[in-house]
# Entry
Amino acid sequence: MISVQGLTKRFGAQTAVDALSFEIPAGQIVGFLGPNGAGKSTTLKMLTGMLAPTSGTATVCGFDLEREPIEVKRHVGFVPESGAVFESLSGLEYLEMVAALYAIPEEAARARIRQFIAFFDLSFETLTDKLLGAYSKGMRRKVVITAALLHNPPVVFFDEPLDGLDANAAVGFKALIQTLAREGKTIVYSSHILDVVERVCNRVIIIDKGKLLLDGRPDELVAAHHSGTLERLFTQLTGGSELERRAEDFAKTFRP
Amino acid sequence: MIAPPDAKPPVIKPAPPPEVVLRRLFLKLFLRGRSSRGLRKSTTPQSIASKLALTLAGYGFFGFIVALSLMGQPLFTMSLCLHSATIVFLGMFVASSAGEVLFNKEEADILLHRPVAPRTMLWAKVRVLVEVSLWLAGAFNLAGLVAGAVKGDGGWLFPIAHALSTTLEALFCTGGVVVVYQLCLRWFGRERLDGLMTTAQVVFAVAIVVGGQLPRFLMQFHGFTQLDVHTWWVSLLPTAWFAGLDDALAGSRSENSFMLAGVGLAATAGVLWIAFGKLAEDYEAGLQRLAETVSRPRRQRGSRRWTDVLVNAPPLKWWLRDSVSRASFLLVTAYLMRDRDVKLRVYPALAPIMVMPFIFLLQPGGGRGSGFENNFGVAFAGAYLGMVPMLSLNVLQFSQQWQASDIFRVAPMPGPAALCNGARRAVLFLLALPMLLIFALVTRLMHHDNSALLLLLPGIMALPVYALVPCLMGEAVPLSKPTEEAKSTSRGLKFFGVMMISMAVSGVAYLASATGWFWWMMLVEFVAVVVAYLGMRAALTRLQWSPAE
# Structure
């Protein structure tokens, strides 16, 4: 479903993504992990056609990213980390605008929006009357997730999707993506909440400084590295060891 | 229930095409602003649409005065003047809105991964710019349309011809801005786009103001009556091409009019072809540039920033003793130097202010001469400097990161006085002072003696008071309001008021200098300024935070 070969992105002298290669078949939920500045968001932006790669190739649903960017965009959904929306539109106006960009007829769009509203426990009045700028962070995130899934894309990229969601919505969301994967959708899930990734994803890709570090099933990787949890494995790989001791030392500096 | 066999399947209304969806979206965003603060849909349109209505009424009134003053002129001259004024404010509007509309950073995360071709997005944005431009142009030219229709050498065809030529003018203007941006992208690359966009916008704003004033300036040499379609230099002015179209369709219908009209049509078509036919593909590259989040490495790693050096050395060290004022000074300096959004708002807004005094200085007899004779232009340049801190502080309060200003209210400060003081000093030091030096240099070069420089003094002396006005009106807390509130029409009225005061001060200074009372006037002004300054500073110090929304 997704095929990445030697994908590279440079910003001047800085290499954000360095010759990344991997394949993701349909129906997988892939945790895409890395420390801050590892190149996760840049990779996702390239795979959704938002950024042009410096070199390398990628295909999504069989469409080449460079030659057929519009087709790629038609087949993917994306929840960006920023959760940006047009704040001066109401939720319904925003979702209808997004639906129209994917050529979903108005009636069908409304019906689908109602399904999402019911799923996320949003009220239709809030969606029609309140502007997005007045929404809480969690409500806004629900609208952004809805906007990513409205056109029923076969591939969905999530960049920190749980940011702002309350516990109930987060549980519902995790169940949703597992069901979507069972239905054959490909999910790429980038997050720093590693215990969620460990529970939800059937594969993880860990990158650092733009390079691929590990790729495999979470339980197998944890077992192979004798780390106990994915979180410990991640800190071992990305140089985050001794963090607890450093935090303790730092906290001591606040003593009067 | 089973449907009868001859029943037609339900008609599914297809989704409108992307260009229509995007045009509606961008128009809505333009009218409502891009961000909102807890507003409901039912109340939001009032915020900007009502201001727009007031703006249109203002333009209508201004256009009425202009049309009235041109009633006695030949049709071509009247049309040329209307087009010149139109191109100034259309250009200013397009130049100031283009950065936000064409290259909006927040938009990248929302729209760049949708299946929309860059050309479609660009065209939708340009349509909105042209549409709003035409509302403004329509309001301004309304009285002119009637005046042209009832004039002896006009007729019923004039309104149609003028509407057509004004539409072409709006397309020419908007296409011109798009071409400037696209060429910057193509020639200088995406990495330098941020800095170039500001430069391009400033250059465009200056070119438009100068271009718009040029016919008036040249007419003062030739006289209105000698000006017609046969005047050789007229064909060099874009506004004359569009006036030529009016004259060709509804006026003299001379060969030269048709030639000018032809040039206008060809130039507009050429600009649009370059903007949308040749360069539109680069647009996506520009948007992608904005989607890049990787920070560029600092150029002088290890060395102290020049701003730190500046504030830690006299005289700024003495001027910024208070830590909050110093922090505010550094914040404003950083945003004036680095932030694309702020730079695109501040510098294009200041560009016409920079140009207007030069136009006064360069008018026939306006600034030249010896001693105090005929020096109104110099006095005006000095008085006009007051606009710099007022406008800058007013514009600097808006930012896309306005929510970060919550930190000001969280910090243990009773009111915004210290923040306002830092911001005020930053604009005085970084913007007003360099402009003052430029005006003084130009004046000195034109007069070859120092006596004319004295006429700058009344304006300079009033600067501290001018700079305190936005502070007392609660408009000088830097980066504390959302950007859509910048689209305020009341600001235009305020600055119109300040301009009138500047004109009055410069008029008084000029008269006082001509009658030998200059130093007495200076003494009176000095006392008035000191009293006003002390009173305003005391009021500012007592100022409390306004309730947060």
Notes: Residues 48-291 of chain B form one domain. Residues 118-150 of chain B form the longest helix (33 residues). The interface with chain A takes residues 12-16, 18, 21-22, 24-25, 28-29, 32-42, 44, 106-110, 112-117, 191, 285, 288, 291-294, 296-297, 484 of chain B (CB under 8 Å). Residues 465 and 534 of chain B are 9 Å apart (CA to CA).
